[in-house]
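Protein modeling request. Please complete all fields; requests missing the sequence field cannot be processed.
Requester role: graduate student
Desired output: 3D structure, token encoding
Chains: 1
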Amino acid sequence: MRRSRLRTLSLLALVALCATSARSEDAAATATTPTSGTSTDDSSVFSNWEFSVAPYLWLFFVDGDVGAGHKQTGIHKNLFDLFQNNDSVLGIEVNMQAKNGPWTVLVDPTWLRVQDSFDLGAGPLKVKGDITAGLYLIDAMVLRELWHKDFGAPVVEKGMPRQGLTLDALGGMRATILSGDLDLKVKPPGELVDDVKHQWDSTQNWVDPVIGARATVDYGRFSFIARGDVGGFTVASDITSEMWATALYKFKLFGLDAFSGVAFRAIYDDYDGDNGFLYKTWVYGPVIGMGVRF
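Delivered output (294 residues):
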């Protein structure tokens, strides 16, 4: 009953987000509707859109608890431990946005990967193994501008953000896919018995609804963005939350509006599956990257 009520409340919140702008959108559509006998240019539909694509590198930290079969272990790794003790650490994401008037569609897929090798040579048995863990996150959100305050004269050129403070409401979903692989090789003593090899793999995945807000300050060549959301509501996770703090510098690159940026990103997830799988962790750290707007 509790899960059903929270699912209903989360859906109502997303509907309310769209409903807040229905009246203003209808009025705008009425004002721009062509009169009878007036032709329209289909290309103008696409000219109203602005797109941005920005690949980023995430230097992440992990802190929390992971378990399976009702047994759990703590994970407390910082970036320096990961580089010293693992063969490879990698976090890549691509932030993609499409903006049309007050509406913005945001899709942000992220791939995190950690690989470790171990060698247990003590005793008569020699055991070697390779562990690979992958975490895939996909944010898909719709944002609606609620309020804007210009700083001086507004900038109206296509592709350049307005100078001022903008507040957006957001709603959407976050998909999480967690995969792990273990390759194990056991070498018995002597030469008469062949090596024993075995491989295990496991994948867990879930999808959570999220709601939140974004604040953007544009001033000259600089932009400062803060974004946060909360979700889960026991639909899948008990709770999930994400926080962004970003600083961007805008410039021209081969005739395009480009930008480079640094950010801090943190994601918390409290997921307890029916099969005994537990994932209750913070993943956080600095982000660096560059993108283009067109």
